[in-house]
Amino acid sequence: MNTTVLKSAARFLIPIFMVLSFFLLIRGHNEPGGGFIGGLVASSALALYLIAAGLEESQKLMRIRPIVLITAGLLVAFLSTVPSIITGLPFMTAFWINTEIPVAGKVGTPLLFDLGVYLLVIGITTKIIFNLAGQEK
Amino acid sequence: MFLIILISFIASASVPLFYRIGPKFARIVMPAVPMIIFLYFSSLYSGVISGDNIRLSIPWFTALDVNFSFYIDGLGLLFSLLISGIGFVVFLFATGYMKGDSLEPRFFIYLYIFMGAMIGVVTADNLIVLFLFWELTSISSYLLIGYYNHQEKSRYAALQALLVTGTGGISLLAAFILIYFATGSFEFSYIKDFGLLSENVYYPYIAILIILGAFTKSAQFPFHFWLPNAMAAPGPVSAYLHSATMVKAGVFILAKFNPLLGGEPIWNTTLLTVGLTTAVISIFLALKQTDIKKLLAYSTVSALGTMVFLNGIGSEKALLAMVVYLIAHALYKATLFLVAGTIDHETGTRNVNRLYGLGRHMPYTAAAALIASFSQIGIIPMLGFTGKESLLAAILTFEGYTFLLTVLVFFSSAGMVYVAINSGLKPFWGKTAGNAALQVHEAPYTMWAGPILLGLISIFLGIYPPLLNNLVQAVYNGISKDDFGIDIYLWHGFNAEFIIGTLIILAGISLYFFRERIYSVSLPFGVIKYIKPSFYYDSGLQAIISFSKLQTRLLQNGYLRYYILLIISTVLLLAGYPVIQNFEIAHINSATPVTFVEVILALLLSISVLATIRAKSRLAAVVSIGVVGYSLSLLFVVYGAPDLAMTQFAVETLTVVLFVLIIYRLPKFLPASRISRRLRDGLVAGMAGVMMTAITLMILFYERESELKNYFLEKSLSEGKGKNVVNVILVDFRALDTIGEITVLAIAAIGVFALIGLKSREKKI
Amino acid sequence: MEIILSLLIGILYAGGVYLILRRSLVKVLIGLLLLGHAANLLIFTLGRLVKAKPAFITDELSASAVADPLPQALILTAIVIGFGVISFAVVLFKRAYDAVESDDIDNLNTTDSLEA
User: Fold this and answer.
1) % of chain A residues with pLDDT over 90
2) Which of A33, A42, B89, B428 has CA 20 to 30 A from A137's CA?
3) What is the ipTM of this complex?
4) How many angstroms separate the CA of residue C33 from the nearest CA in chain A?
């Protein structure tokens, strides 16, 4: 499946997918979207690129190793619970910053949590898919 | 006090540490622990005898009324003192006995666990806690009996003891739960205020179950067979568990529940008859034994039977006799077992016919044995004498069958005398000439100091029994409803008890002289073989094993799809029946109108499912499963779930990629199964589908208005600060679920990583 | 439409059950996937159907006209978890296949032969 057309199309599509996925992530609180969906869209983009350009190219494109993403995702998600632990409120009580930001609306720990989910989902899917692709050789 | 109960377990965990410091150090430190416990309980003495019973409770599962609560009354104190006091002697003895054994530390670990558990049993107030400790004694007894685990006999005996006493433990638990139903509490000190439970509907069951638990533990007929087999254990274990403490736990339970359950024929008659039967039959069996430990074991069973039937008689004198007899027996029988252990250790044989003339070589051991056997025989002024006097006094004042009872007790007591002579005196008697064990010498002091100590206590209490008055009074108050002033003293004059007691001793001596005759008589023993309960134990166990083999062959034949088929068929049968029963087509009145798009989607879905099933190649199957997923996500779009649709879409894409990556290069499917098998599976699958449809329809046409829905719709913006309610639920209201979810995902990724990492490592090798 | 959906659920379940009773491990995997879909659709349908009105807070909100968000959140979680499970199962299958060179489940019921 290593065709030039697919390859260049994929290379062209990747940034668009990435921007789209991030967009889905941050607006998820008010419109369709969210961490899961954003992460899955980004991973599908990477999966597409993998099929088009092969494993090594995709890994080069990723720059970060998936396992790092998984760890970072879990950390960020748990980080979002820290304020509630410190203040002694029920676990995972949300905290918000009061200024509005364009597109995302209000920013607070739930968004941070969503970001963690997003990173983790990308990490896991790429981990699995890359590993399997590595097996084939 | 909590610490005192814990200390044995702490000590158990520290045994390796002791040995790390040095075996010598360990052997000095270890007996100190029971000593500490003994001193602690002694300090409670004056409080308890003046009626200040101690209670302590730490909440555990308060909703179930299960707490770590402990309660020390006279009975508990007596047992605690016996357990820790004899425990001290046994530990001391064991440091000599086990010295140099390859698994020496392990032995002490088990022994500590046992001691802690036993202390727990006798001090627990909460019945569930009592049960836990009770089971722990069974388990530690299992470990100790099976200590010589290279011997088939030990393993068999250990398992037998565990199964028999474990069964009793379960029935005890059942009894406790019924008591909870009857009284609403697991706390014994609270239950006790209810008084007799005989009016309660559960009474007969409670009584029977408690009796069953006590009988298995205290080796009463027909469960007596495990105790002689348990003699496969090392000497100190036999002395400690199987004569002085653990087997008395059954007697303890019966005494403890006497004020609650006593006074009814179902309780008293059962105890009386079974106790008496045990006392007589086991002494009968003891007559033919030549193994010194088995001899002692059967006489222990007999003594336990005596205590049980005294409890069954239930009069003041009988209960008094039970307590005195119990103390006396614990003191002399532990000594005799320890002496037997010493003999075994020093000469290498336990056959009484080959043992004589040891007295000259091991004078201290012989002295201890002498005192103990005199106590068992009941020679004045030993405590055993007072025990036997009070036993006879209880029998003679019992109304009904007095003569029969006296005759039976006469026989069993004479047997006890015989056992005492044969096991405690004979080995030390006579000349050493021609003795195979000529080279024997005295055991180290650790092994005779304890037995002598116990012997001295026995004489001391025997000469001046009023010392026991206060303690026995406290025990008595706890186990009886009637008031009775206890006054124990040594000399009652030349009354009937004394005369009968003397006759018993004479009868026992003559039994001893006719022992050759007894060995050669075989007829009655042949009969007993046929009513041997251990035979039923063995065949019952065998039956259970063959049954489980059969059901394993039938149900778990190693083919995954049979398991699945079985599970699904069971579900179909169990859930299908009520569905058929309750399904009413009249409920159905469709709500949402059908549109063209949906029909197309539904058709697409059905066709692709069919295509998946029928697919001949893997790729075709993967493609059609993809279509199923995409159609589903379109359905989600139609019904107001854009988030779902997007997720489903993305996941489906990734799944297809995954399958393609893996399956792309694999060969074609296996040839299809036989048509009959496919028909059968199809039938089951079809029924499963029909049932699910029916269930869905049944649920759907009940009106449902979710409160949660309104809650989330109202609070989403005000508290979750978001307009997308689904996402707010995910990251705010139910964010903990999501944390769990991403953790699961991370674990799945680690699993994948491990599986593939395994592969690459293998390749390197 | 509910009736049609109920029938669809039945079809999905039947297909899933049929496939996990096959000998081929790939088919069993696909059967698992189908069962996952079936369960999701079941929960979704039981949350009651409301056409084309997603659960977003708008100015003129009326609860009865909006889809129930809770089942949706549950299913969203289920879909993603399902993906995790399937990917793990696929990798497991791959490993098993490499070890025994077969995707026939009947070849997997003796543990000893894996040694070689």
Assistant:
1) 0
2) A42
3) 0.88
4) 17
B157, part of any domain: no
Q: What is the mean pLDDT of chain B?
A: 84
Neighbour count for residue B33 (Cβ, 10 Å)? 23
> What are the sequence ranges of the domains in chain C?
2-53+63-114
Could you tell me the residue range of the domain that residue B475 belongs to?
279-516
How far apart, in whole angstroms, are the C-alpha atoms of residue B148 and residue B576? 55
- Taking residue B180's Cβ as centre, other Cβ atoms within 10 Å add up to 19
Question: Cβ-count burial of A73 within 10 angstroms (0-12 exposed, 13-18 middle, 19+ buried)?
Answer: buried
Is residue B164 a contact partner of residue B533, using CB atoms and an 8 Å limit?
A: no
DSSP string, B389-414: HHHHHHHHT--SSHHHHHHHHHHHHH
Q: Could you give the number of structural domains in chain B? A: 4
Q: Residue B723 belongs to what H/E stretch? A: none
Tell whether B347 and B473 lie within a shared domain: yes
pLDDT for res B78: 92
Residues 6+ away with beta carbon under 8 Å from B614: none
- Cα dihedral angle (B367, B372, B378, B380), rounded to 10 degrees? 40
Tell whether C81 lies on the interface with B, counting CB pairs under 8 A: yes
Question: Within this chain, do residues B473 and B530 fall inside the same structural domain, yes or no?
Answer: no
Domain of residue B684, CATH code: 1.20.120
Q: Are A35 and A117 in contact (CB under 8 A)?
A: yes
In a domain? residue B431: yes
Q: What is the percent of chain B with per-residue pLDDT over 70, rounded to a whole number?
A: 91
Whether B231 is covered by a domain: the verdict is: no
Sequential DSSP letters for B169-233: HHHHHHHHHHHHHHHS--BHHHHGGG---TTSTTHHHHHHHHHHHHHHHTT-TTSTTHHHHGGGS
Widest Cα–Cα separation across chain A: 57
For the domain spanning C2-53+63-114, the CATH number is 1.10.287.3510
One domain for residues B566 and B701: yes
B367 and B450, same structural domain? yes
Contacts of A31 in chain B (CB under 8 A): 723-724
- Measured between alpha carbons, how far is B30 from C85 in angstroms, rounded to an integer? 53
Residue A124 to residue C76, Cβ atoms within 8 A: no
Tokens representing C18 are 């049929």
For residue B635, is pLDDT > 70? yes
Q: Contact partners of B by the rule of 3+ C-beta pairs under 8 A?
A: A, C
Task: Find the CB nearest C97 among B666, B725, B729.
Answer: B666
Residues 8-67 of A with CB under 8 A from B: 24, 28-37, 40-41, 43-44, 47, 50-51, 66-67
Cα separation of C35 and B625, whole Å?
12
CA-wise closest residue to A51 among B649, B619, B657: B657
